[in-house]
Hints:
heterodimer, A: 262 residues, alpha/beta, Rossmann fold, six-stranded mixed beta sheet, two-stranded antiparallel sheet, 37% helix, B: 380 residues, alpha+beta, Elongation Factor Tu (Ef-tu), domain 3, six-stranded antiparallel barrel, 7 helices
Amino acid sequence: MIEQNLKELEEKGIYILREANARFKNIAVLWSMGKDSTAMLYLIRKAFLGKVPFPVIHIDNGIDFPESYKFRDELAKKWHLNLIVAKSEIKPEISGFSCCGANKTEALKKVLKDHKFDALIVSIRRDEHSVRAKERIFSPRDKNFKWNYKDQPAELWDDYSSKIENEGHVRIHPLLDWNEIDIWNYIKKEHIPVNPLYFSRNGFRYRSLGCTHCTVPIKSSAKTIDDIIKELKVTTIEERAGREQDKEKEYVMQKLRALGYM
Amino acid sequence: MDVYKIVIIGDKDAGKSTLIGEIATLTKSVSEARINEAKRESKKLGKEFEPAFILDAFKEEREKGLTIDTTTVEIPYKDVAFQFIDVPGHESLIKNMLTGASNAEMGVVIISAKQGEGLTRETKLHIKLANMLGIDKFVFFINKMDTNGYSKEKAIEIWNETHKFLLPFINDIKYIGFVPGSALNGDNILKRSRKISWYKGDSLMERLYGLVKNGKKIDKNMPTIITLQGTFEDKIFGKIISGDIKQNKVYYLMPDNKKVFIKLYEKNGKSVSLKISNFNKSKIENKLLTDDKNSVLVSDLINAKMFFIRGPEKDFYISFLGRKYKATLNYKGNKKKLLFVNEAIKLEEKIAYQNFNKIKELGRFAIYDKNLNFNGFGII
């Protein structure tokens, strides 16, 4: 895994966030309490002089890990977040594709509509998944949340001038160029708070966090950020191998994203 | 680690995605799971392993065997990393090709040496567009050499034809190199292949490494230019394009040509936030600050070289530094698609700009039609 220049990544991330701020009226941030979206909140604070000036949405299906809820409440207080908890229903018989699709995406649709958000800052990265690797920095969704991946807008240089298609919204991806290892290097360098589930307990840790139903831990003895960085340098396993939705069926990520999933 | 961005261009089916997929597989730069997924899906479609599937992740791309949208793969090599940018070769997907190529520092042009393929019209168009976007270093990879028995004559024929094509704009190009090989068989990709014994030069990766190691350029004594991005509370955000910002210095707000006093509030690399005295905050976007007002030009009438995907129109928009301006073009020539036009355009208001070959960020714009659909780009 390639370690990139953090200063350049940070600079570009700040530029993207400030462009979004100059262009949209009603922006929200999506936060899962995972490492990426937490590092992104930190980056937003850097871009906006120590504040998170946008509402922060947590799509809560009620079955996230207890550690995540605790982490959420503590950080929301510390960073003065304007937190919107959007409850999503969970049906025990549904899992994987339909779970993330039907539940999380529906809850997100509702909260965007209720608050009339026109842009949503999301912490996806290209190296997570080959479908996410095809994304733009500013990526429009129509009012039904559809991602028209077959006809994405042009995005030359750092000119992010996507228009909003028929009452939809635009996804802003400031971390698109970052690698998993860059996130950890950044967390280390900037001392960013991190969800304790990422560190090894009894020989296991979570490398990628979803909800309790579809995330499984990996075998790991990494107890510190340095251990994690060391582990990532040699691993040949995919980051999201512990996420059920990704491996359940072929093209699941493509289908989920086309329907508006994160 | 220094990361260099390289766009792979060429006609459809020349082997762009295959080349990057092969490099990724040979260097083990992508996970086993991703390679296995590509293998599994290749088999399902009744094919042998298609390295291109590592990049072409969409179902439609794999079924049709073409790249729809641009993507990137990072390849560590010695003490650097290459970010290979894959772009579609099809003419109808040119906006996605431009999106990928606009961020590259150099280009690898793939030309197929297979009977009936070669240096095609689309390949020539890609080279022209990449060069217009500012890419001035190209390595030509003569691909599919396995289909002609690694023929020296065939490689030289393509080589000569390419030279002839490049001659008219050779002044805009700083480097060209040629490597014959086969993406599918891995010949001359990482190491020199024994199958092409007549070729004594570097493999593709060795050639690219040599290019980045010799090509570092340093900007010295450039004027300070800061483009302004908008406001936040009582601060103004900006990005340093050249030079560096200093306290207690006189700056000019352009295109207004107005002397202002700035106070640096915060700086993160090239991102800055400022306080500016004596100015109207609501009119700050689209403008820039400079310590040398002669470092930029100011006008609403601009000569530009433009490329129109669906042909030129009289009224359109340009997106300059991320902001849109109405533009008018009086052009009497033919209006066919994929057209290069060298003309003056009239903008709705004055902008501060510079020639592309002096300060590239201030000398380029994207073109949108009346309905705000992307229709090309221009270079000043």
